[in-house]
C-alpha cells in the first residue's frame, strides 16, 4: 500500500488500478488539470528543467527524490499515509467508534464543503504566484518557488482524489469547479479572502509562504485528526510537503532582513530613504507587509464564533491542532473560551461556548507559532546590532471576518477613530508607494550563485547541493 506505483499514468499508492471507474474519471480530469497549469501556472516556465523533489514513498525516512524535471511532466499523484486498521475517532460525539473509511450520509455535505475549501486554496496560490518567476532574485529562489508551485498542484490532486472517490457525481463537478474559479476573478473568485489577494513581488511571496502556508499547516493538522480516515491520511502526507513551503517564507524574510541590516550598518543609518536608495528594503516596509499578510491570514480561520466549527468538531470531521496531545475530554461540551469584542469603544474579552469558538482556538494556536518565527527574524536584527524589532499586530487589526471585522484599530491594539485610521493607515499597511518601490527592485537574477542586491544568499543549498548549483536549466 505504501509503495508508490510510478508505472501508471497517475502515480499513486491507493491501488487506483483496482478501481477502473475511478481511474478513468481521474484520467479524464488529468488533461484539464494540465490545461489549467499551462494557462495559469508558472509563467514562461514550460521549457525549464527544474531541480525538484518528487514524492516517491510515504516513508518519512526517504519519501522524496531530487532531479531535474520539466514542471508539466512532474509526477503529480495520489499519496496517502499508511492506514491503521484499528484507528478510532478520538474526539467529538463519535469518540471511541471506528474511524470511517467512507463518508457517512449525514456528514456528506459538510465534509464535501471542507474538502472543497481546502482544495480551492491550492490552485489559488499557484495562480497568485504565477508571474513571480519572471523576477526571481536568484536561481535558488526560482527553484524554491517552482517546488512550492508543483506541490500545491499535488495538494489539489489530493483533494480531487477524495472528491472523485467518495462524492460521486457531485464530487466530480466540484473537482471541475476547482479548475474554474480563479484567484481575484470578479465573477468566479476563489473561496477564501487571502487567496484572492495579489502576491505582486517576492517580499509578498515570502510573507505569504511564512504566514498563509502556516494556515495550511494548522488547517491540515486539524483535518489530519478527522474521523474520515482517507482525509486524515492524505492531509498527514500533505503536511510533510508543507514544511518546506514555510521554510521558504521564514528563510526568505530572514535573508531580506540580513541584507537590510548589512546596508544599515554600512551606511550607519536607519533612514528608510537612504536604505532604499542603497537598494535594500527598509524595515518599515517589511513591517507593513508583515501586518498585511498576518491580518489577512488570521481571517482564514473564520469567524470567532461559528456554529459550523462546532458541528465540524462534534461530528468528528475536523479536530483541533494536536488533538491527541491534549488532556481534556475531547468532547468540550460545557467548556468555554475567551473571544474578543468591542464594547464602548474598548476591546473586551467574553466567555463563549468552547465548541463555537474552535476557529478562535485554532487561530490562537497559529498566532503562537507565527510569533515564534517572528522572534527568529528579530534575532537576525539583534545579531547585526540593529535596535528595531518586528512585531505581529494585534489580532483585531485589519480584520474582515468575524466579530472584529471592520474595527478601526492600530497595530498595537488601540481602537482608533476613522480620522486617525485615515491619517495613519499608511504607516500600518503597505502603501502603493511601498509596492512600487519593492517592484522597482524586482529584476530577474538567474546566473547560478548570483543574488539580487536586496536579499542575502541562503546559508546552504537545496538537498546538500552548493548554493551555485544549476537549480534551473533554461531550455
Ligand atoms: N474569506 O462560520 P464561519 C492552505 C466564510 S490554507 C472568505 O466562520 P467556518 C494553503 C465561511 O466560508 C488552509 N470567506 O465559517 C496555504 C462561511 O461562508 P458561508 C485552507 C470566509 O466554516 C497556502 C462564512 O464566512 N484550509 O492549505 O467555521 C498555499 C461564515 O464563517 C473566510 C481550510 O481552510 C475568509 N477568510 O470556517 C496553499 C480548511 N472565513 O458558508 C494552500 C477547510 C470564513 O456562510 N475550511 N468565511 O457562505 C474550513 O475549515 C472552514 O471553511 C473555514 C471557515 C475555517 C475556512
How is this structure best described in words?
This protein is mainly alpha-helical and 475 residues long. 47% of the residues lie in helices and 7% in strands. The model has no long low-confidence stretch (mean pLDDT 96). Helix 2 (108-128) runs antiparallel to helix 3 and helix 5 (202-223) packs parallel to helix 8. It contains twelve helices and five strands. The strands form two sheets. It has a three-stranded antiparallel β-sheet with strand order 2-1-5. Strands 3-4 form a two-stranded antiparallel sheet.
Would you identify the regions where 5 or more consecutive residues have pLDDT less than 50? none
With strands numbered from the N-terminus, the spatial order across the biggest sheet is 2-1-5
Cα radius of gyration in angstroms:
23 Å
Helical content class: 40-55%
Shape descriptor reads: globular
Number of strands: 5
**Quaternary form:** single chain
Q: End-to-end distance, in Å? A: 37 Å
Average pLDDT rating: 96
The percent range for strand residues is 5-15%
Structural class: mainly alpha
**How would you spell out the order of helices and strands?**
HEEHHHHHHHHEEHHHE
Major sheet attributes: 3 strands, antiparallel
List bound small molecules: benzoyl coenzyme A
Helix count?
12
Amino acid at each position: 500500500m505504501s509503495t508508490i506505483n510510478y508505472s501508471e499514468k497517475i502515480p499513486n499508492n491507493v491501488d487506483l488500478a483496482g478501481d477502473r471507474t475511478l481511474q478513468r474519471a481521474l484520467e479524464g480530469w488529468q488533461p484539464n488539470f494540465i490545461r489549467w497549469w499551462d494557462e495559469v501556472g508558472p509563467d514562461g516556465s514550460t521549457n525549464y528543467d527544474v531541480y525538484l523533489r518528487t514524492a516517491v514513498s510515504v516513508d518519512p525516512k526517504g519519501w522524496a527524490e531530487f532531479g531535474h524535471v520539466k514542471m508539466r511532466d512532474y509526477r503529480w499523484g495520489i499519496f496517502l499515509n499508511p492506514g491503521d486498521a484499528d484507528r478510532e475517532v478520538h474526539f467529538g460525539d463519535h469518540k471511541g467508534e471506528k474511524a470511517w473509511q467512507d463518508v457517512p450520509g449525514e456528514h456528506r455535505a459538510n465534509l464535501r464543503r471542507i474538502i472543497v475549501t481546502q482544495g480551492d486554496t491550492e490552485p489559488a496560490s499557484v495562480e497568485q504566484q504565477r508571474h513571480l518567476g519572471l523576477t526571481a532574485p536568484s536561481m535558488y529562489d526560482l527553484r524554491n518557488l517552482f517546488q512550492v508551485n508543483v506541490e500545491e498542484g499535488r495538494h489539489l490532486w489530493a483533494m480531487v482524489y477524495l472528491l472523485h472517490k467518495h462524492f460521486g457525481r457531485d464530487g466530480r463537478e466540484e473537482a471541475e469547479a476547482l479548475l474554474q474559479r480563479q484567484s481575484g476573478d470578479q465573477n468566479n473568485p476563489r473561496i477564501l479572502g487571502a487567496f484572492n489577494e495579489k502576491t505582486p513581488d517576492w517580499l509578498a511571496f515570502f510573507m505569504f509562504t511564512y504566514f498563509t502556508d502556516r494556515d495550511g499547516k494548522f488547517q491540515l493538522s486539524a483535518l489530519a485528526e478527522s474521523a474520515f480516515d482517507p482525509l486524515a491520511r492524505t492531509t498527514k502526507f500533505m503536511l510533510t510537503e508543507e514544511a518546506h513551503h514555510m521554510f521558504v517564507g521564514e528563510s526568505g524574510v530572514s535573508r531580506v532582513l540580513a541584507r537590510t541590516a548589512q546596508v544599515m550598518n554600512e551606511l550607519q543609518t536607519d533612514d528608510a530613504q537612504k536604505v532604499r536608495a542603497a537598494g535594500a528594503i527598509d524595515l518599515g516596509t517589511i513591517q507593513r507587509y508583515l501586518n498585511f499578510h498576518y491580518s489577512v491570514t488570521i481571517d482564514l480561520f473564520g469567524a470567532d464564533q461559528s456554529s459550523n466549527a462546532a458541528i465540524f468538531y462534534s461530528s468528528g470531521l475536523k479536530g483541533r491542532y494536536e488533538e491527541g496531545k491534549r488532556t481534556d475530554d475531547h468532547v468540550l461540551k460545557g467548556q468555554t473560551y475567551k473571544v474578543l469584542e468591542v464594547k464602548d469603544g474598548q476591546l473586551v474579552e467574553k466567555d463563549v461556548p468552547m465548541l463555537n469558538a474552535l476557529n478562535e482556538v485554532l487561530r490562537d494556536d497559529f498566532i503562537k507559532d507565527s510569533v515564534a518565527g517572528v522572534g527568529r527574524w528579530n534575532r537576525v536584527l539583534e545579531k547585526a546590532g540593529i535596535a528595531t524589532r518586528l512585531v505581529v499586530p494585534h489580532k483585531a487589526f485589519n480584520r474582515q471576518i468575524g466579530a472584529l471585522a471592520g474595527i478601526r484599530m492600530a497595530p498595537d491594539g488601540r481602537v482608533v477613530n476613522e480620522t486617525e485610521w485615515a491619517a495613519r493607515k499608511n504607516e500600518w499597511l503597505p502603501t502603493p508607494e511601498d509596492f512600487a518601490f519593492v517592484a522597482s527592485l524586482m529584476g530577474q537574477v538567474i546566473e547560478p550563485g548570483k543574488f539580487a542586491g536586496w536579499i542575502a544568499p541562503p546559508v546552504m543549498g537545496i538537498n546538500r547541493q552548493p548554493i551555485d548549483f544549476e537549480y534551473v536549466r533554461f531550455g
